[in-house]
Amino acid sequence: MAAIPTYRWRCAPDGLATRRQLRARGLRPGGQDVAAQIERPRRRRGPLVAYLYSIEQAKPVRPMTPAKWAALAKANASRRICPACRRDAGYVIPLSLGMCTPCAYPEEQRAA
What we know:
It is built from four helices and six strands; from the N terminus they run E-E-H-E-E-E-E-H-H-H.
């Protein structure tokens, strides 16, 4: 197995980009293999690794279809419905609570 070229943080050559950098340009890796990686050292843990892809081989991002927009809207709406009272909370329900704020903290507890 061939090793992937590894560069130090902020020392990658031109023509390579991370997934986020590709996305900012309206591109995606498009099935290509990882061209290289960069490592950012950390003090007490292993280094952070980011994979780099060739900008020349990247393909344009696929546009959102009406069906995808509808599915995304439905998924986001389901995150706003409280499982306890079945009402739209008006915000995304935090996973730490698992329900809307009024259901998580009833009036009896707020008055005390």
